[in-house]
Design brief:
- There is one protein chain.
- A hairpin with a 2-residue loop joins strand 9 and strand 10.
- By secondary structure, the protein is mostly beta strands.
- The protein is built from no helices and 11 strands.
- Strands 2, 4, 5, 6, 9, 10 and 11 form a 7-stranded mixed beta sheet that branches. A 4-stranded antiparallel beta sheet has the order 1-3-8-7, with no helix packed on it.
- Helices cover 0% and strands 55% of the residues.
């Protein structure tokens, strides 16, 4: 059974940093794309950052410059370095992995990790 397990969330003061990790288990394949989404209370889930097969990255405008996504292909792991955190970054952060095949794509989600930015 494929699982994505996030870690690294927590409570941090404004201006602080956190590093999220997401490790895949139960896979015999490498995800083509991996990314991070977040959902704040009362809001829809939104893309934060993603990194695709080629290594290209894209970010939500609200996190550009402050956040950096990276991946370890050998370990099927993705990271999100979050700096200069703001209260608006408070949300549950979800790891996402996409596997593309000729027959179609499969999307996998982690269970989420809470990030709270509060003084």
């Amino acid at each position: 059974q494929v699982q994505l397990v996030e870690s690294g969330g927590g409570l941090v003061e404004p201006g602080g940093s956190l590093r999220l990790s997401c490790a895949a288990s139960g896979t015999t394949f490498r995800f083509n794309d991996m990314g991070w989404y977040r959902q704040a209370p009362g809001k829809q889930r939104e893309l934060v950052a993603r990194i695709i097969d080629s290594g290209a990255r894209n970010y939500a405008d609200s996190v550009k410059v402050r956040f950096t996504i990276s991946r370890d292909n050998a370990e099927n792991t993705v990271y999100l370095q979050m700096n200069s955190l703001k209260p608006d970054d408070t949300a549950v952060y979800y790891c996402n992995g996409v596997r593309r095949r000729y027959s179609g794509s499969s999307t996998y989600w982690g269970q989420g990790t809470q990030v709270t930015v509060n003084s």
